[in-house]
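Subject: Deoxyribose-phosphate aldolase structure
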Amino acid sequence: MTTDDTPTSHVPLDAVGLARFVDHTLLKPEATRADVEALVAEGVRLGVYSVCVSPSFLPLEIPVGLDGTPDLLVATVCGFPSGKHHSEVKAAEAARAVADGAAEVDMVIDVGAAKEGRFAHVGQDIAAVRAAVPAPTVLKVIIESAALTDDEIVHVCEAAEAAGADFVKTSTGFHPAGGATVHAVRLMSRTVGGRLGVKASGGIRTTADALAMLDAGATRLGLSGTGAVLAGLTAEGDY
């Protein structure tokens, strides 16, 4: 992962605290149901916020704690990874995922529409999914920030906010242009001004990467190598 800015401070977290920012993710096309079951077990053990899996794996069996609530939430994706799906298809996919137990949906925008400056179309696409999965479902909008200019990032974040999204998210992790950068996260955070969450995802493989994203304003992290990232922090928060 490359970043455009050098963070000046770290968020003071221990491994337990950092885990609560994490969507523990498995979206590889070759993933099996056994892989997903292992992901859930690892997510529970690590104390992450959620697991994020492809919609065809839903519903998941999530352990329930002593208080009767699930040990973690379930997130999924729609229009993934290209975003080149009709809005009604994305909406239907999202609605089916929520019916199958997803509490959060990460949708991919039509990146080409953003590159063409058709931000109204981007907003309409997001609004269609939002209408299909209203609150309390959490809607995150994957903007593929590495493929966009700063101006395009700002416009897409504004469109996501106007369409009722809850988060903007940097990346699918599948685009050849790359994943999350500190610069993009900082710009996205500044644009949404705390009114939306910011999820950094794609290429975050070390503790230093994760802390840099949080420093830049990320409020959620999409990680596939969560164990290795958390291992960089001791229970006392040393890093």
